[in-house]
Design a protein that fits this description.
This protein has 270 residues and is an all-alpha fold. It has helices spanning 20-25, 39-87, 96-165, 179-191, 203-217, 237-249, and strands at 253-256, 263-266. The radius of gyration is 58 Å and the shape is rod-shaped. Belongs to the DASH complex DAM1 family.
Length: 270
């Protein structure tokens, strides 16, 4: 007889690890209650988790309500600011013309600074030129003194020759100088100590220098301001300033600003 065949059986489905049935049938929980008693602790835990979920959902709802309130308030504030900007004039706000003026002002300031630097350089070059001219004038004065000394020696030699020959000496009466001649001679003496441009290369400048010297020499006050020496139309402020610079450099005139006002005092040839 053929051996009896084992009938096919459907294998039992594996019990889910988290199923309540496994919890009731598992040997890992020997103290688990029989029947439906195992549902009590599971339902208690479910109740606790449900309460926690409800509490979290309530917190989320409160947060949502707070955000909605803030959004509404913030949106209202933005709307008010927008309406205020549209309905309020701001006269102090900068305009395109303001930026153009600021740019133009910056260019003007730069131009002014450049002109001031140029003026400073010109004044420095003028001072160097005046110093060189004063040095040349000193050399010319020394040469004139040597010539005068040589003339005096020649005259003395002629007088000695007359004495040796026994001829009588003729007395020559000296002509007295008038006040005008003394004045002209004193001014001439001062002008010869100044740079060449004041000694005849420019007749107009020499005449201006003589007018300035006369004003300072015969002044009744101890000091004069620059404006006191201006005599339009010939002697303007620029000419007076140029003449005073030359006289101050030659130390014929003293410049004093101790009182807050620039005064020029006459000293004469040192």
């Amino acid at each position: 007889m053929p051996p009896a065949q084992t009938p096919h059986r459907t294998p039992l489905r594996r019990v889910s690890q988290g199923s309540l049935f496994r919890l009731s049938r598992s040997g890992a929980y020997p103290d688990a209650p029989h029947g439906l008693g195992f549902l009590e602790p599971a339902m208690a835990e479910l109740l606790d988790e449900t309460d926690a979920l409800q509490t979290n959902i309530a917190g989320m709802k409160n947060l949502s309500d707070s955000l909605a309130t803030f959004n509404e308030s913030f949106a209202s504030w933005l709307y008010i600011m927008n309406m205020n900007a549209l309905t309020t004039d701001w006269p102090q706000a900068p305009t395109p013309l303001s930026f153009q003026r600021a740019k133009q002002r910056a260019e003007e300031d730069a131009q002014t600074a450049l002109e001031a630097l140029q003026t400073k350089n010109d004044a420095k070059a003028r001072e160097i030129e005046i110093a060189a001219a004063v040095g040349a004038a000193d050399k010319t004065t020394a040469t004139d003194a040597d010539t005068t000394y040589a003339a005096n020696v020649t005259t003395a030699t002629g007088v000695s020759s007359n004495k040796s020959t026994g001829l009588p000496k003729k007395k020559v009466a000296k002509a007295k100088l008038t006040a005008k001649e003394k004045k002209e001679r004193s001014i001439e003496k001062i002008v010869t100590c100044l740079p060449l441009e004041f000694r005849g290369s420019d007749p107009g400048l020499r005449r201006n220098m003589e007018m300035v010297i006369e004003g300072l020499m015969y002044s009744t006050v101890p000091g004069l301001k620059l404006t006191d020496l201006i005599t339009p139309p010939d002697l303007n402020q620029a000419r007076v300033n140029k003449c005073l610079i030359a006289l101050v450099n030659r130390k014929v005139v003293q410049k004093d600003n101790s009182t807050g006002t620039v005064l020029y005092r006459w000293k004469g040839i040192p």
